[in-house]
């Protein structure tokens, strides 16, 4: 490559980025918007769940159990008079669960029998239903401990479970979602921005002017990669700062693997966009293709939201072609677990291989021909 020509091309591309507000918007405004939407608007936790409480006959024992639900951060208890009224409320999706204390609850409890407690949970959202079931069990267990302690007895349980949560002790879905979202954002920045740069040159007629100059295609390709790489890494830095200081996601890993993996993934995303741009000479077509083959697979098949191990085997194999899969794995590990080098090196090797293969394909398909 001729250093002077390459410097001139990079300068020309950089000025084009500065003159185009959409490029700056995608690189810096889009990460802020998506992080705010997902960070505050999307949660896999179940909190403030509307729960119907039906007490057929009031008693100190029943009110003691009800108070446990009133004091819980997970529920918004809604008192109802009959089970029919509660079932109707669930049919209209006004509540997500029902606690039913029947008329003989206190009598059975005082006589040493089995006090009947009905629990009905809406299974429309299976994940939320499992969470509600676990929260109800926790409230019930705490109530049992209080009652046995008040009676001067000891609650005997055949198996004592001691819970230990690794990596995300607060069990906040935000700590899991935000690192994965950074990978989705970088996919959008890298692929969307570069998918239209070569197509734009063809549409505006400037590519023909470049073809008659001594500039080599490898110099043109390099001039497209360098400015957008710098722009994308700026968006990456902004996203990490928001994750740590705005959403308080812990960053337990060091900066070296974060910078290395981000650089590799940004190169891969830029190469995907350039490959689309070289193949499609229309900005509109290139943009549509970029959404279909980069953003959607990154969102669905990267493990960002859906666990890859629960997918069919064929789809699991297909996820190996999605670069975001490896970067999501690295980011979630760096943020929540720390520097686990074997895992980092394996995923980094996959990203390096994908970036190199895409670059070779782009070079092969790029020719100084007007056809």
Task: Describe this structure as you would to a colleague.
- There is one protein chain.
- The chain has 371 residues and is an alpha/beta fold.
- The chain folds into 2 domains: 3-42 and 172-365, no CATH class; 49-150, abc type-2 transporter like fold.
- The chain is built from 15 helices and 4 strands.
- It has helices at residues 3-19, 21-41, 60-70, 83-91, 105-110, 126-150, 173-194, 197-204, 206-211, 217-246, 255-279, 283-301, 313-318, 323-336, 341-365; strands at 49-55, 75-80, 97-101, 117-121.
- A 4-stranded mixed β-sheet has the order 2-1-3-4, with helices on both faces.
- Helix 3 (60-70) packs across helix 6 (126-150) and helix 11 packs across helix 12 (283-301).
- It is elongated and about 95 Å long.
- It starts with a helix and ends in a 6-residue tail after the last helix.
- The relative contact order is 0.12.
- The model has no long low-confidence stretch (mean pLDDT 86).
């Amino acid at each position: 490559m001729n250093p002077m020509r390459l410097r001139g091309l990079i300068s020309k591309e950089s000025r084009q980025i500065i003159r185009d507000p959409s490029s700056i918007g995608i690189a810096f405004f889009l990460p802020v918007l998506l992080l705010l939407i997902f960070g505050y608007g999307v949660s896999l936790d179940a909190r403030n769940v509307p729960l119907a409480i039906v007490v057929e006959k009031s008693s100190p024992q029943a009110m003691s159990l009800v108070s446990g639900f009133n004091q819980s951060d997970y529920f918004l208890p809604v008192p109802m008079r009959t089970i029919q009224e509660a079932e109707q409320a669930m049919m209209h999706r006004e509540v997500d669960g029902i606690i039913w204390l029947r008329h003989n609850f206190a009598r059975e409890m005082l006589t040493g029998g089995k006090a009947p407690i009905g629990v009905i949970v809406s299974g429309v959202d299976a994940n939320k239903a499992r969470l509600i079931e676990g929260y109800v069990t926790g409230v019930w267990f705490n109530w049992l401990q209080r009652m046995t302690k008040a009676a001067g007895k000891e609650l005997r349980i055949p198996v004592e479970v001691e819970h230990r949560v690794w990596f995300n002790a607060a069990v906040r879905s935000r700590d899991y979602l935000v690192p994965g979202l950074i990978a989705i954002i970088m996919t959008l920045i890298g692929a969307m921005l570069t998918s239209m740069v070569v197509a734009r040159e063809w549409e505006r007629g400037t590519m023909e002017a470049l073809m008659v100059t001594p500039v080599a295609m490898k110099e043109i390709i390099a001039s497209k990669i360098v400015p957008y790489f710098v722009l994308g890494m700026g968006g990456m830095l902004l996203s990490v700062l928001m994750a740590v200081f705005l959403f308080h996601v812990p960053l337990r890993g060091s900066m070296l693997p974060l910078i290395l993996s981000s650089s590799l993934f940004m190169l891969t995303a830029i190469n995907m966009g350039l490959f689309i741009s070289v193949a499609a000479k229309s900005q509109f077509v290139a943009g549509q293709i970029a959404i279909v083959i980069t953003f959607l697979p990154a969102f669905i098949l990267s493990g960002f939201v859906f666990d890859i191990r629960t997918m069919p085997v064929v789809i699991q194999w297909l996820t190996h072609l999605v670069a975001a899969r490896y970067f999501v794995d690295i980011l979630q590990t760096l943020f929540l677990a720390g520097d686990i080098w074997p895992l980092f090196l394996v995923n980094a090797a996959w990203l390096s291989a994908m970036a190199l293969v895409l670059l070779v394909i782009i070079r092969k398909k790029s020719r100084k021909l007007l056809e």
